[in-house]
Task: structure prediction
Amino acid sequence: MLADLGFFSLVLAFATAVYAAAAAVWSARTGDAVMLNSARTAAWLTIPLTSVSAFVLILLLTTGHYDIHYVFSVINDDMPLYLKITALWGGQEGSLLFWAWLMSFFTGGVMLRKWQRDVDLMPAVTAVCMVTMAFFISLILFVENPFARMWQTGAGETVYAMWQPAGTIQIIPADGRGLNPLLRHPGMVIHPPLLYLGFVSLVVPYAFAIAALLRGRSDDEWLRTTRAWTLSGWLFLSLGLILGGRWAYDVLGWGGYWGWDPVENAAFMPWLTATAFIHSAMIQEKRGMLKRWNVILVMLTYGLMLFGTFITRSGLLSSVHTFAQSEIGHWFFVFITGMMMFSLVVLWRSWPLLKSEQQLDGLLSRESAFLLNNLLFLGITAAVFWGTVFPMISELLNGERVTVGPPYYNMVVVPLFAGLILLMGVAPLIAWRKASARALGRLMLIPLTLSLVLTAGLAIVGVRDALALFGVWLCLFVSLTTGYEFVRGTQARIKTNGENTFTALSRMMSRNRRRYGGYIVHLGVVLIALGFIGSTAFQQETQGRFNVGETVSLGRYTLRYDGLYAWQERDRDIHSAEIAVFRDGQYLTTLYPRRDLYLQNGQPMPMTIPGVRSSIEDDVYVLLLDWEGFSADSATFKTYINPLVNWIWFGGLVFIAGTLISLWPQAGEARRQAAIQAGSRATVRA
Amino acid sequence: MRMSFLRADRGREREDGPQARLPSSVSRLLIVVLLLVSTAAPVWAQDPVTDDEVNRVAKTLYCPVCENQALDTCPTEACRQWRATIREQLEAGRSDEQIRQYFAEQYGERVLAAPRPEGFGLLMWVIPPLVVALGLGLYWNFLRTSKRRAPTAAEADGAADSSDDYAARLEAELRERR
Result:
């Protein structure tokens, strides 16, 4: 009964989305304002309709309606309440519903903003948003329905359907299968929502770009309007990626956080193009250049977002043949192809309209630096894309599946990232339009010298890895030039306004939130880069079997195996080892690495949870791999020392701070900024 | 080995009687030779292969059946057996590369962390540098064709940012120069 309600609400949502799209297109062609309003209301209505479906599914999950196939497959009685709720996105069908629900907030939410300035864009924006929405709902209704029940045919087969097919009896299990234990982690609770929020918010800039082009507009109004959506979507995506890494580090038990797994890459690629877009959008706003490029970038981001969902959900990754068996792949393929072709047609027809207003004035200029930035980002995207799809290509053309792993990515992607970090340090010092190399050299002198001296210091102290030293130098250089930017601006304010340091700094930042927020994000990138260098180039590991009381040394640390304890909890068996950790001979702490065994439908599902001691300088990370017999007099452990790994998570926090500063609105600020931009355009163009 | 040899010797002494006994000088020589030989034995016996050495090789291989799992961290029983295979091969004295080769032949190319740069795999390695070169070429071309000869504006020296601290900075630098 309840499931039927959820299903019907979704059917209504689908019909509403289709109607909204159709009415929007109609109003665009006839100029009928009533139809436009109707479309707007319909678009907004998808929010409550999908919400009903989502709440129904959550209710079914929390009350254990095991007659529903999805509920049976993701929960069981032993799971705590919060996990039952988050099981909404624990499986394919629920994920799609969750996605559609989130999308309704963004696409419907766009309808709620004030439209006076851009009312001519509204029909196309509504249509694009609603078409995307309708697609995802159609996937849920026709291919992966979370409300389907289970039925058994006479032949003993299980079929899934909403209502009883002829000749079958209903299957109502007493308990469910339960969520994969790997997903029972706080990271998994927020990682998918963050990623989905990032993805769905990227639909909005795309919709606005298409709308602007269809209206024959060549200005950058759409960029300004969607800037907040793009930036916040980018932040969600960034956090989703970082949290995904953190979750992998915490529970997957391989001491790392990023494996160049195709699913990781699928979320990474839209992030890369979105970051490129955020930067090149600034050029269009400041100088009216790169209009065609920005449109291409926004279309690419939308396409990669869909493609990412496609390869993650369709099973294309495990084998091209799974793709053929699952219908959802076909639907995605058709939709992506259709939307990309549509985008190309719109772009092609608007091509002459998007001619740059300005020319490039100098080879060495902020514009060319931004262009290089975009080139590098796109290069990384292309490299990651190639590495992700090559296994499929190999299987299709060569008949043999291959793995593309870290050796490829380290060789191709890392140098490009190094180039980006270097650019991050140099570009703020390069003037707009035409910079003189001498002026640039003068500005770079202090940061360059200081960073070289500090790096040399590290080399003297004993660091020998040349690549790591180079990476550290890059990060130091960027931190110094970025910090220098803050110092210069503050000093200028102190001199002209006579303010004290603190007031000067905060007023300066407050008046240029975009720029200084962006610089803070750059500093966050530097922290993450340093964390990455530390935890890969200087990682130490060892594995061995120890008897109780025996110790092992790794770096400055000594670890002693003190015993194994076993007990049972509601849903799992736990074996936990006690490890005493010493540093330089002094006792530091005790760690409890564990092996949990979940029983799912009689199938044992193991989970290895590390014992970790985190500090600013490193993580001591211990895994319990095996033990001998019931008395567990000896056990096998794997220990990692991961230097600077926590700088990565901290860098994520800096990301948030920087983006929030950049996004923070000020009364009249928007108007003031627009005036400044227009004014600067006039002077810079002159 | 040493002990069992001596025991056999003693047995023969008992059964065969005094006539079959070796002359004492020869048996003493035999014992000396044996002692010398036995000191060489530890050189032949290897140190047991450590887990770290197994992991060193396993790290560069991928599980043939699981999805994108490196062989050193894969927890399944099958992977445990494969790691045992690596251990055996290391004990037999094979090199890392030989072991990788063995796995590739047995289980297919997919166990390697990246396709070898030969045959079809070569395509994978060659395309990215080509694309990057193409991109750089397009970038350079764009810079050259889009450049316009403009006079070096006053903003060329230092800050050319269009916001109100541009003015502040300009003033500060002008003051410096006085």
Notes: Chain B touches chain A through 55 residues (CB under 8 Å). Chain B has seven helices and no strands.
